[in-house]
Amino acid sequence: MTAPTRPGPADTAPDSPAAPDPDRFAADPGRSVTDSGRPSADAPHPGDDPAAPAVEDVRARLEAWLGDTVLTPEADLSAPLLDLGVDSLDLIRTARRVEAAFGVRVQLRELAVPAMTTARLAELVAERAARRRTADTAPPGAGHGPVALTPPQEQAWEEQSGDRGHWNQALLFTTRPGLDGELFAEAVRRLVAGHASLRLTVVAPPARRPRQQVTAVALDGPPGAALGPVLDTVDISELADADLPAAITLRCAVEQRALDPGAGPVVRFVRFDVGPTRPGRLLIVVHQLAFDMVSWSVLLEDLEELYTALEAGRTDARCAEGTPYPEWARALTEHARTPEAEAETEWWTDVVRTPATVPLDHTADDPRAVNTARTAATHREEFPPELTARLVAAAHAHRAHPGDLVLHALGEALAGWLDEPAVRVDVLRHGREEAVGDSHLARTTGWFTTTVPVRLDLAPGTAAERLARTVGHLAALPGGGVGFGALSRHGRPRISAALRAAPPSDVSFDFEGDDADALPLRTVLPDVAPEPVGDITAPHWTRPHLIEVIATTDDDVLRAEWWYSTALHDGATVRHLAARHRAALTALLDAVGHGTAAPGAAGAADS
User: Fold this and answer.
1) Are 418 and 470 in contact (CB under 8 A)?
2) What is the mean pLDDT of residues 253-258?
3) Rounded distance between C-alpha atoms, residue 223 and residue 139, angstroms
4) Collapsing DSSP states into helix, strand and coil, what is residue 258?
5) Which UniProt keywords apply (predicted)?
6) How many angstroms separate the CA atoms of 202 and 92, rounded?
7) Cβ(212)–Cβ(201) under 8 Å?
8) Which DSSP string do the residues of 112-152 spell out, in sequence order?
């Protein structure tokens, strides 16, 4: 993905691909499934399922999945999941795999309880597989009446006061030679019908809060007529190999300006037909209001399975989405005025009182007005591989996520720069917290990424004591942090006004971890294409924070990107702050790398 600046807010990386499961496409006797192997949402299940898997089979599968993705060979698989280094993104992946393989849904909050082990999870899955019931869901392609924007959507709508159309996520893929255009169009229709967020439009009457609605899509008739501007095919089969990159690059740049969250569409699929013998291209552009990075793996997996099923002649294949995005928006709005949510008010009120303003090198009447994509610049830091290994080991020893330690070191650097005993940082989290209503979000596309204010207490103490305060604070975040946005946007006026009175932090942090090989690319879309996709944001796009820190651990190497505005900060200032962070993280690992474990839960800072 090529861009002049990060899409905002930056999102957590999608999950790692699972090898195709041979059981996914086999319809078990006694239950109705889609051709992708998932249970049909509208199929009746009047009683126990005689073909339900045995507990031992489920447990063996779970242990194999965990062993392939997150565990070390010497791990004790009988221990609770949270003691095995599993974070919340790993739990999302597990929930998806459980649904795909066994046809049942497990909520993320169920997976995250401290006592949940592979043995207990196997019992839970086997029990539910034996007692499946009809899911009460809207039919694919159905429209949905206006509902409130989610907190991140509404905040972004307010920040982007100009043209909001050019603010996207985009990826360009190679397609296998000889792709059938008609079958592909039908697969895209079923994909769009199965994911409500791909059909969103925003209604914004003057002087009223904007709302979102979902347009319907026809499931019969020609797919091109039903999809309209969502799907386009560009025939460049007459071009020579040497001329393809320029033509593809030019069209990709044009497509970045083709979306309209007000009138639609919010997604474009552009297939480049280069003839039957050469790999083609597929550009997918989705507006940020409708999509986050975790959604990529859901969309790509479903597109692969839909096309493959249609190609094999299985004409009733469709997606099995979880809670549709507008239903999640409605549930979040209702949650904001429940006693459970309002009980979090004191916590968030205390957090937002923490200092969060950084000094500027260049004055501006309105710093956020000049903090745009046009003025954005980046400083990158790369740490030695041995430091990444020490980071992971220290995090495990202190019952923390590696991102917790990187965030804590950022707090140390900021506290020294600002000469404050505590600082506030906006931390980006995946936001798929199923503590709100009866939600199942592992297979739902949409923009869930939420920005959570975090207080980093750097009062005097040993390095281990200060780290323990950070880890403990992150572990105690109420409801994973989604309550802050709900209360500040949809809470009662007194609560909402109090939380929104404090400005957002000038600094954000996102730990994206290792996103190498994260996309589930298989046969239909075998790889990411080499051509650039163009600028995913317009020059006037307003960045949500003055300084954005994005950390990754690709190839077992920790890297930190520091995004800032040249209209507000000099490069030397940001490089000095990055050096402070580097020194603070190195000193932290020197001090606590072999110390006693700090209290807290693993995975707390997982974005």
Assistant:
1) no
2) 97
3) 17
4) coil
5) Phosphopantetheine, Phosphoprotein
6) 28
7) yes
8) TSTT--HHHHHHHHHHHHHT------PPTT--EEEEEPPHH
Residues in the chain: 607
172, β-bridge pairs? 283
**How many angstroms separate the CA atoms of 352 and 333, rounded?**
21
The amino acid at residue 24 is R
Give the list of residues 6+ apart from residue 552 with CB closer than 8 angstroms, or none. 13, 512, 513, 514, 515, 558, 559, 561
Give the list of residues 6+ apart from residue 74 with CB closer than 8 angstroms, or none: none
Q: Which residue has the tokens 């974070």?
A: 87
Per-residue tokens: 603:
């995975």
| Cis preceding linkage at 9, omega within 30 | yes
DSSP state of 542: B
Write out the two tokens for 523.
Answer: 């046969």
Contact criterion met (CB below 8 Å) for 508 and 8: no
Label residue 2 by pLDDT band (50, 70, 90): very low
* Residue 549 contacts residue 6 (beta carbons within 8 Å): no
Contact yes or no for 156/8 (Cβ under 8 A)? yes
Closest to 443 in 3D by CA, of 318, 527, 561? 318
Dihedral of the alpha carbons of 478, 480, 486, 491, in degrees to the nearest 10? -10
The mean pLDDT of 555-567, rounded to a whole number, is 95
Burial 543-576, CB ≥16 within 10 A → b, else e: bbbbbbbbbbbeeeebbbbbbbbebbbeeebbee
Averaged confidence pLDDT in the chain: 86
Q: Per DSSP, what are the bridge partners of residue 181?
A: none
- Alpha-carbon Rg for the chain, nearest whole angstrom, is 24
> CA 584, CA 566: separation in Å to the nearest integer?
25
Write down the pTM of the prediction: 0.81
What letter represents residue 463's amino acid?
A
Region 223-232: mean pLDDT is: 96
DSSP states along 40-100: PTT----S--TTPPPHHHHHHHHHHHHHHHT--TT--TTS-GGGGT--HHHHHHHHHHHHH
3-state secondary structure of 425: strand
Could you tell me where the beta strands, DSSP code E, fall in 347-411? 376-382
221's tokens: 């008739």
- The first and second tokens of residue 559, run together, are 């890297």
State the Cα–Cα distance between residues 449 and 101, nearest whole angstrom: 27
Token representation of residue 215: 């347009």
